Fold this sequence. Notes:
The structure is a homodimer. By secondary structure, chain A is α/β, with parallel strands linked by helices.
Amino acid sequence: MTRIALVQMQAKAGDVSANLARIAGAARQTAEAGASLLVAPELALTGYGAGDAIARLAEPTDGAMIGALEAIAAQHDIAILAGFPERAGATVYNSAAFVGTVGHATVYRKSHLYGDYERALFAPARPSGVIVEHAGLKFGLLICYDVEFPENVRRLAKAGAQAVLVPTALPAGDHAAFIARQMIAVRAFENQIFLAYANHCGADALFTYAGLSQIAAPDGTMLAGADAVEDTLLIATIDPSAFAGSAAQNTYLRDMRDEL
Amino acid sequence: MTRIALVQMQAKAGDVSANLARIAGAARQTAEAGASLLVAPELALTGYGAGDAIARLAEPTDGAMIGALEAIAAQHDIAILAGFPERAGATVYNSAAFVGTVGHATVYRKSHLYGDYERALFAPARPSGVIVEHAGLKFGLLICYDVEFPENVRRLAKAGAQAVLVPTALPAGDHAAFIARQMIAVRAFENQIFLAYANHCGADALFTYAGLSQIAAPDGTMLAGADAVEDTLLIATIDPSAFAGSAAQNTYLRDMRDEL
Lengths: 260, 260
């Protein structure tokens, strides 16, 4: 059992220092609330809508940007998961770094890019099963559009993930509330896991974001949820034993046929 | 484009004649409403809660029970999908027969059995991809618990199904509304297909059913929905072109990685 926090924030496109400062503030609040882990949105460090600046700002995991994130995590003795553009030679990935309590940063690279904007900026990674152990629990990592594919969450659940952490940048639009609320809850329920979905709010020059961040429980209920516009911190307790009743009735992972 | 109907009914456990009569009434209403297809619940012909009588009542697809269903379909010039216990030698499957406009009956056998009750009565079939062409559209078939596994719906959508028809027997309980409403809508949305979920209502000696049958659209909206208790017929138009906007924005089948 541990408490986790999720920051729904308005990133400043292209301003890494400002975004690190916002995350540092959330990290302080996270520690003060007795939580051990903070989840920030997709590309939180540069802003999602930074456009061409993203390629210039991209850094390897051992660069200054993730170094600064590690320093914030160390200062508050918590773990942090935050999205950033990762440079790997000539390639740029849409990645998220988990830093703070597991030695070197663990990096997850987004496998399912959405739309022309992302495909122009990033290379897609092969679907992978990155799981981090933290506070005695197994956390799987995905980014945004990845979580909309049930196969990606299932792969992590089959590998033992008890919660999946999802930095995201879901734009406002016709289907945003359906995705952020109904689909995220179903992803949790159909695997009987927790799911933390950390979105941006506000707007930059290119996009308006949907907010609606949430932390969903294995029974499909919402443990904590933000509205569409607030810059805020959500906190919830991740305790699988509190949902043993739901797990006993909804035995998807046990009943799933090997052929699937 | 075609109109389909879905009957939410209170089956009489063990009384095939009574259940055929109820389906005949629904078939008449279906034809009168200008619909071309009627979907009835899981094991609609015997009742889901018929217990030990199910093995005695089970028949092959060319038996009298499906013959009577074919006669009803022919009389009203519609297709009918209804659940029945299928005998195949010494084996009994939890099956559904699609009769009426495609020559011989097409049978789908449930692959994912739920709980001790079903496992005592039926053999599970291998997951399959049964698709029926009707009125120029491709309809995939599943039964009840099968649809709760995203893999089963995905398999049909990848094979070209534009709608999935699901006879079900969802009992009332803590998670029934979540499954019947939220999960069914997400299964439709994540594949951009229609989904018709036909449940029982009322109770028999063994179970109380949740009702809440619905026909979901590709954009996750509910085209028609029943409450928890009413014995009723739902009707909706299946017109993929009416949801081209949703399909253009939510390109899951196109974006899904081959590795998945």
